[in-house]
Write a structure and sequence with these properties.
184 residues, 24% helix, five-stranded antiparallel beta sheet, 4 helices
Amino acid sequence: MIRAVRVLPPLLLATALLTGCGTEQAGPGASGDSGAPADPAELASRAAASGMAPELVYVTDAPGFTLAQQSVGVQGDDGFSAAYTDRNGAVIHLYTDRPRHAGHHKYEVDKKDCVVWLEGEGGVSGAVLGKALRAVRRPTAGELDTLLPAPDPAFTDDQPVRRGDLPTNGDGGPPDNSVPTPGL
């Protein structure tokens, strides 16, 4: 009994800390934005920087659901994925891929050379998934900053990032991979 009482506070603390994880959401205008379509060149640049094919980037609108910005990422080789959450913790997952890589899903739609499918979690009804599937579309210019932020010019493919805060030797310095010569 005493051991259980000692273990309980750390478990409650861990639960409280994990409850806040993954709750960053897009601000107003990120979903349901009725603006002009995103500039194709800008969408292509941002998608490529994230390893996604621009033609596979799609969004949806679902009443009560908001894009969780940190969920946006690559699906498969160069597809797209994002999650939309509601205030009760329900989640709609949006995935895209090329038709040859996509399976058959209950809530899917073909868009040009792309298959988009949705999956629900946390009690999302089929009616909500059906509405969200009918609302699948290309992102607007107003959604682009939230969906795919502009790449940081400090990061390039050909040069490593120099941190500047690491010591040149000792703990945290570059590794010493030399092999000692025996007898010297």
